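The passage that follows is intended for readers who have already worked through the single-chain material. We present the inputs for a multi-component assembly, then the predicted structure in tokenized form, and finally a short commentary. You are encouraged to pause after the input and sketch how you expect the pieces to fit together before reading on.
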Amino acid sequence: MLTIENLSVHYGGIHALQGISFDVPEGKIVTLIGANGAGKSTTLKSIVGLVKPSSGGVSLDGEPLQGLQTKDIVRKGIVLAPEGRRIFPNLTTEENLALGAFARNDKDGVEEDKRKVFKLFPRLEERRKQKAGTMSGGEQQMLAVARALMSRPKLLMMDEPSLGLAPIIVKMIFDIIRTINAEGTTILLVEQNAKAALEVADYGYVLETGRITFSGPGRELLADDRVRSAYLGESTGKK
Amino acid sequence: MDIATFFQQLTNALSLGSLYALIAIGYTMVYGILRLINFAHGDVFMLGAYFAFYAITAFAMPWGVAFIVAIGLTGVFGMGLERLAYRPLRDSPKISVMISAIGASFLIENVGIVLFGGRPKSFPSIALFDTVVRFGSISMLSVSLFIPVITVVILGILLWIVNKTKTGLAMRAVSTDLDAARLMAIDVNRTISLTFGIGSILAGIGGIMWTMKYPQLNPLMGIMPGLKCFIAAVIGGIGNIQGAVLGGFLLGFIEIMIVAFLPELTGYRDAFAFVLLIVVLLAKPDGLLGKNQTVKV
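Having made your guess, compare it with the prediction:
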């Protein structure tokens, strides 16, 4: 569905992405893992047009997205739940959700999707009139995911959804990722929590300083010694 | 001072405060969305008055039509200003945009002197607004009563747009987080343009009502009200519409009442705004209604 070809990004003098290529097949969960500064967030930002690539490109179902503005890429069905959540703190839960559905004009469909996300996150329904900035970190992350779902995306990209959250909330977020995917949404997940990400992912890519160094099905990467020693913090027995 | 004089001054303060509030909103909305002080805003206010003047005198429009045309032109002018002077600098450092704003202000003032002439012009009298109204021993021009009423109606419409419409929601989103707003599929450029349009429309309405009350036009007439309304916006808490209204009324009241109660200070009238600004900033650096925003990470 989504094809990234030879994508390169420069930030000032830094070559943040050095020609990476990968695919996100329809209906799957794909994850990008890697250390801080490897280029994971940059990849997501350039897919959605917030960062302009210096070469290479992204296409959705064969259609190139180069030169399109973020708003138009989002309207094509790619949505990003960004790093740090970036919910609108001075707006209520409901207003945040309405913004998620900003591009849509089907009022009934939006109402229906709102009921759906409230079913997925009952906590948000309790907080519907509350200013998002006053909610807990976990609730804000739920809101960020719910807001992204409100656009009825074909492809949901999530940047570090587990960052800074209590383990029980992290588990809940990953359960939700499975549920959303089972309902037909393709997912591209960026995580530092490599173990949790690889456990849900159909396919994983490891990014190291702007290059993809390993790739493979999630389970295989989870078992790979190099990945385990570098990203899962496990001793592999080989010295 | 007897009660009649007091009420007389009270209406003066209300109408001046209304005008300040209308202009201050333009500063605060643009600041809220772009973190830019639009130094040319006072000059947009001046243009509103001139557009109405020429629509009546040169194009012989009935005043009602002339006002609508002038207000519309002012709105379009504000959007054009954003397009030409600010949008090309969207990704530049803030200081460049600010310098561009100062440049735009000088440009408009001086082109105004060339086109309109430097000599003040008198605004034609319109009977509906120039009638003297009497309540017992109080007498005032009807325009002083119209101004607060029109202002309240406009504020109502504005708050409805900002708080209840999709466009308003987009404005609030863009003013909080530009990139997050882009991710919501909001057309950020269009939203910013509309914000300038609305702010300029309010300045145009303010400019026209100003010349009804003080019927002299000159190309530099926007400087002092512009500066004071910027101060009003800061006093109220810049970025906050209610704050701008509060600041505008506060400034109008203080200016009128100090002169009324202490006539010997009349010569310092323009200084009150600056004194008030210093006092408020010392006591509450974010302005009266500004919040000290804390961000949760």
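Commentary: Chain B has a mean pLDDT of 93. The domain at 3-123+136-283 of chain B is CATH 1.10.3470 (ABC transporter involved in vitamin B12 uptake, BtuC). How closely did your sketch match?
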